[in-house]
Amino acid sequence: MSETISPLPTGLLPDEASPEWLNRGDNAWQLTAAALVGLQSVPGLVILYGSMVKKKWAVNSAFMALYAFAAVLICWVLWAHQLSFGDKPMGIMGRPNVLAVTQKYLLEQVHEKMIPQADYVFYQFVFAAITVILLGGSLLGRMNFYAWMIFVPLWLTFSYTVGAYMIWDKGFFSEYIIDFSGGYVIHLSSGVAGFTAAYWVGPRHQNDRQHFPPNNIIHMLAGAGFLWMGWSGFNGGSPLAANEITSLAVLNTHLCTATSLLVWMFFDLIFYEKSSVIGAVQGMMTGLVCITPAAGIVDSWAAMLMGVLAGSIPWYTMMVLHKKSAFFQRVDDTLGVFHTHAVAGLLGGLSSGIFAKPNLVKMFYNLESSKQGPGLLYSIINQDDIVHFHEGFKQMGWQIAGAIFIAAWNIVVTSLICLFVRQIVALKMHEDDLEIGDDAVHGEEAYALWGDGQRHRPLRSLTPKIPAIFRRR
């Protein structure tokens, strides 16, 4: 009996299903990379945040991450992607395009790459989403959830999009700064913005700030695992193709991360005589962040050296400097996002300016229109007709200038957003709610059965008196 070949669906021609410019391997990898980055947030950071905080804040912390992921997606597709990567410049951002949600736009080719715009829109969305969620790590355990609902779309629109446009797309720094996958756009911005927002929101309840143990370390490790493995897509997706730069970026990502984790653990052993699981997770995070701006444009030995820096310098700022500095003590950064992301992101950006290898930079960037590289190290040891001594110092200057711009922009814009939001709703929960936690805020508890289902008496925020929710402090 002969087999019958099913025809293509009505109205779908072979060239329409797979146009000549589309590379199926690149397309498949880009969708996979985007999915891996998405898994870093949901369920990765949802689990990590819900487990790394005190038991009474597990639901609220996880819910803040889940809400941000959903809200950013809608805002990103409707306007934020065009503000970040729009074809028509509008000062420090792109111009919104109402046609960006149509089939005509989403199925177009992305510049000279062999993937459709829909891939790029989704990949950049998961970057934007995880940036906002990382920022939220500084605010856990006290920010009014209604204030967070307003803050997320505003910060995405007026802060994140500007950084993405200025460094990654057509902005002033885009032809000069090396930021392979978001050391500045994502991590430096989230760390600085989180610390700034934490200042305006105010500290947690005094008891929480003094004693804030994780409620489930095993689940915390599961969330951290999603982050680590998902970073293969985070850095591996940046070339927008399944090529040799992609492979190098993935390998370097894991080498730097493992090195940083071990260095952080050894510092804990030396100074505290115990290896901390939480410390290991922090070291893992700083390694992932540090390699991000350099993943595909440095040699593997440099990636491991960056891991040593990532496991030691943020350890010092978090475990020593933070405890001695009145400035750091004044601001309640719940999960230490400033150290794990701002410090590590800055360290990675500066390291990129030192270790960027000329031929790898040339492979990743289109040097006919861009002026990135070489790294300072190679400009010193390899002076020839291609690499000149002064070029490395010039690159370091651009790396520093870009860091200053991102930090300053996020401090100013995040402050303005917080000041605006508090005119509408209190940035911080009521003191009574802070004492109770999840049950007071959401009417739910993460581990209600462990307490035989006991519930606290309803507080003011659970009654029908809606104006109490929006009362300004």
Automatic annotation (TrEMBL):
<feature type="transmembrane region" description="Helical">
    <location>
        <begin position="251"/>
        <end position="270"/>
    </location>
</feature>
<dbReference type="InterPro" id="IPR024041">
    <property type="entry name" value="NH4_transpt_AmtB-like_dom"/>
</dbReference>
<feature type="transmembrane region" description="Helical">
    <location>
        <begin position="398"/>
        <end position="421"/>
    </location>
</feature>
<keyword id="KW-1133">Transmembrane helix</keyword>
<keyword id="KW-0813">Transport</keyword>
<feature type="transmembrane region" description="Helical">
    <location>
        <begin position="120"/>
        <end position="140"/>
    </location>
</feature>
<dbReference type="InterPro" id="IPR001905">
    <property type="entry name" value="Ammonium_transpt"/>
</dbReference>
<feature type="transmembrane region" description="Helical">
    <location>
        <begin position="147"/>
        <end position="168"/>
    </location>
</feature>
<feature type="transmembrane region" description="Helical">
    <location>
        <begin position="57"/>
        <end position="79"/>
    </location>
</feature>
<protein>
    <recommendedName>
        <fullName>Ammonium transporter</fullName>
    </recommendedName>
</protein>
<feature type="transmembrane region" description="Helical">
    <location>
        <begin position="180"/>
        <end position="201"/>
    </location>
</feature>
<dbReference type="InterPro" id="IPR018047">
    <property type="entry name" value="Ammonium_transpt_CS"/>
</dbReference>
<dbReference type="GO" id="GO:0005886">
    <property type="term" value="C:plasma membrane"/>
</dbReference>
<feature type="transmembrane region" description="Helical">
    <location>
        <begin position="277"/>
        <end position="295"/>
    </location>
</feature>
<dbReference type="InterPro" id="IPR002229">
    <property type="entry name" value="RhesusRHD"/>
</dbReference>
<comment type="similarity">
    <text>Belongs to the ammonia transporter channel (TC 1.A.11.2) family.</text>
</comment>
<dbReference type="GO" id="GO:0008519">
    <property type="term" value="F:ammonium channel activity"/>
</dbReference>
<feature type="transmembrane region" description="Helical">
    <location>
        <begin position="301"/>
        <end position="322"/>
    </location>
</feature>
<dbReference type="InterPro" id="IPR029020">
    <property type="entry name" value="Ammonium/urea_transptr"/>
</dbReference>
<feature type="transmembrane region" description="Helical">
    <location>
        <begin position="334"/>
        <end position="356"/>
    </location>
</feature>
<dbReference type="Pfam" id="PF00909">
    <property type="entry name" value="Ammonium_transp"/>
</dbReference>
<feature type="transmembrane region" description="Helical">
    <location>
        <begin position="213"/>
        <end position="231"/>
    </location>
</feature>
<keyword id="KW-0924">Ammonia transport</keyword>
<feature type="domain" description="Ammonium transporter AmtB-like">
    <location>
        <begin position="28"/>
        <end position="447"/>
    </location>
</feature>
<feature type="transmembrane region" description="Helical">
    <location>
        <begin position="28"/>
        <end position="50"/>
    </location>
</feature>
<keyword id="KW-0472">Membrane</keyword>
<keyword id="KW-0812">Transmembrane</keyword>
